[in-house]
Specification:
- It is a single chain.
- This protein is α/β, with parallel strands linked by helices and about 300 residues long.
- The chain contains 14 helices and 6 strands.
- The strands form 2 sheets. A 4-stranded mixed β-sheet has the order 3-2-1-4, sandwiched between helices. It has a two-stranded parallel sheet with strand order 5-6.
- A hairpin with a 2-residue loop joins β1 and β2.
- α2 packs across α4 and α2 packs across α5.
- The longest helix is centred in the N-terminal third of the chain and has 18 residues.
- About 35% of the residues are buried.
Length: about 300
């Protein structure tokens, strides 16, 4: 709400004027729809039902809900279902019970979506990541040391840095409960995967269908998928990316999703810059962001 936003130190938007007379009604309508979704986790989200609850037309509710929340009603319902599932698992509920309480029709649907929801199996998530095995290797790249880490499902982290020791420390901090092993030889699958990632880092677009094993919110996934559609050698601003997603006011959220990306280059958040043309931030350092963009622009020329 505007009150909560201002209490957190944010200033009212000069474009949408959240204190205007029209906006409270719009926010109330969206809040009513959001509350209905939260209170009916087992029900399928029907736009006509939400429209009656909110007192808006279906078209207006869909458009307004996405502007205010950053997700469509269906995407919001799916995100809340995943959140409830995680909460149940953290409370040590059995997978079947957690599935039921979260509103999934069956445990089989949970296992089908586990990779995207959790980045691991439901059982491993329930144990705080214990039992999750991560193997990693560190090789050289044009941008310094390159760490590639993977589970049995696919790549879970790609990081760039100056020192391998620091990259290893950051990986262990990211997955504190997992079993993490550095592999130097004798692991053909990981060696091949590292080679593919290294080729993609050096020559963007050269590798396709690299298996990934990452977790994120519904909105983060939308941002990350949009990032992969930005051609090498091109850049977009955070505001342009937000508009592409249909959420023009979610610039801060888009920037946050870029910052949360753990897959350097594979999810090319380095191709997003500020509206004024300045680079903005980059998890692995602005000099690397500059080098990546320069190299891609030169290859495209």
């Amino acid at each position: 709400s505007p009150d909560a936003a201002e209490a957190a130190g944010f200033r009212p938007c000069l474009r949408c004027k959240p204190r205007s007379a029209e906006t409270p009604r719009r926010l109330e309508a969206v809040e009513a729809a959001r509350r209905w979704i939260d209170e009916h986790p087992e029900d399928r989200v029907r736009l006509d039902t939400l429209a009656r609850v909110a007192g808006l037309s279906s078209w207006h509710l869909q458009r307004t809900f996405k502007k205010v929340v950053g997700l469509s009603p269906r995407e919001y319902a799916a995100a809340r279902r995943r959140d409830r599932f995680r909460e149940e698992l953290r409370g040590n509920a059995a997978v079947s019970r957690a599935s039921f309480e979260a509103g999934f029709g069956s445990s089989s649907r949970v296992y089908e979506q586990a990779n995207r929801m959790l980045g691991m199996t439901p059982g491993a998530y329930r144990r705080g990541g214990q039992g999750m095995e991560i193997r990693y290797s560190i090789v050289s790249s044009p941008y310094g040391r390159l760490l590639v880490a993977a589970t049995e499902r696919g790549v879970c982290a790609v990081a760039l840095g100056d020192q391998g020791v620091r990259l290893e420390q950051e990986l262990r901090a990211e997955f504190p409960e997992a079993s993490i092993t550095r592999v130097r030889e004798g692991d053909d699958w990981l060696r091949d995967l590292v080679a593919r990632v290294a080729r993609e880092v050096q020559h963007p677009g050269s590798e396709t269908a690299i298996p990934l094993d990452v977790k994120g919110t519904a909105f983060q996934w939308r941002v990350w998928e949009a990032l992969t559609r930005i051609p090498a050698g091109e850049t977009v601003s955070y505001s342009e990316l937000a508009r592409t997603l249909g959420t023009p006011r979610a610039v801060r959220a888009v920037a946050g999703a870029c910052a949360a990306n753990r897959l350097a280059v594979l999810v090319p958040c380095h191709r997003v810059i500020r509206a004024d043309g300045s680079l903005g931030g980059y998890r692995w350092g602005l000099p690397r962001k500059t080098a990546l963009l320069d190299r891609e622009a030169a290859a495209r020329a």
